[in-house]
Amino acid sequence: MINVPFALAIAAAALAVRAAAPEHRESTREHTQRLDVVGAALVAGVLAIGVYTLVGVPAHGWTGGPTLAGLACTVGGAALLIAHERRAARPIVPPEVARSIPVTAAMAILLLTAGGMFGALFVATFLFQDVLGLDPLATGLRVLPMTVLMILGAPLASAALRRYGPRRTAVVGSVLVTLGIVALSGLTSATAWTGSSVAFALLGVGFAVVMVTATGTVVGDAPPGYAGVVGGLKQTAMNIGPTLGIAVAAGLMQADALEAASSPPLRTLAATALTAQPALLASAAVAVLGLLPALLLPAQPTPNARHPEQTAADPGTQGRLPRPRIQVHDRML
C-alpha cells in the first residue's frame, strides 16, 4: 500500500504534462503496426504456465505428474507461439529485429542477469532476517551500496562501453553480478557488514554495466525504424527475467526446506540457513549464463555510439537510428 500514493502521483503527473509529439517520418509510418493480440496472449500464457510449474516443483517433484504436464504445456505453448509468430502478418517481434544478433544477445543477457540478481535479492531477504537476525530496516540499509553504486556506475559504464566495446563491457558486468551473488552465499554473522557491502557493491556496479551496455546495443544496433520496438522488448526482458529468477530461487528454497524441517517451508532458522546457500548458488548459475550472449555482442566500439540515456530520451531517435557522427581521438591527431 505504500506504493499506491506514489503510483497515483506519477499518473497525475503523466496527465498534467503535455509533451510535444515526436516527429513523424516515413520510416516510422512504414513500421507502425497494431498489437498482435494472439501473440501477446500466447506469451502471457506460456510465462504463466512456466512460472506456476516451477513454483509447484517442491510439492510435486520434478518427475511428478503436474510438473511434467506443466513443462509439456510450456514447451508446447512456446512451439505454438513460434509457429504463430512466423505466420503472423504483424508479429510481436518483427523479422528484421529477430535476425539482429546484437539485439537478440542484448535481450538475452538482460533476461539472465536480471533473473539471477533478483532471485538472489529474494533469497537475501530471508538470509538477512531469518539467519542474520536483522530487522527489515537494517536489511534495507544493507542494500543501499547496491543502489548508490548502480547510480554512480552508470556513467562509468557508458564511458567503458564507448572505449572497450559492448562485448568486453558486458562480460565484465556479468562477472561482477555473479561474484556479488556468490559473495552473498558466503555471508555469516561475523562478516555481515563487510561482506554484505562488498556483495551489494558488486551487484550494483555489475548490473549498471549490463543495463547500460544492453540499452546502448539494442538502440544503436536496432534496424532502422524499430528503435521503439526493441525498447519495448528490452523492458519485457527486464520483467520476464526477475519473474523466472524468483520462481527458480523460491522453488529451490521450498524444496530444500521440506527436507530440512518438518515445519512449513521458510519458517524456521534451520530451514532457511540450509536453503539460502543452494538457492543463491543457483541464482549465480543463472547470472553466469549471461556470459554466453555477451560473447555474441560486437567486439569493437560503435563509432557513432551515443550515451544510451541520451538516445532513449531524444524523441527524434524513436523509430530511427541516430545520425553518424565523426569522432577523432587526440592521439590520432
From TrEMBL:
Superkingdom per UniProt: Bacteria
> Which parts pass through the membrane?
35-55, 67-84, 104-128, 140-161, 167-187, 199-220, 240-258, 279-299
Sections of the chain in a coiled coil: none
Q: Where is this region: Disordered?
A: 301-333
Keyword field: Membrane, Signal, Transmembrane, Transmembrane helix
* Protein name per its UniProtKB record: MFS transporter
Classify the protein's membrane topology as the record does.
Multi-pass membrane protein
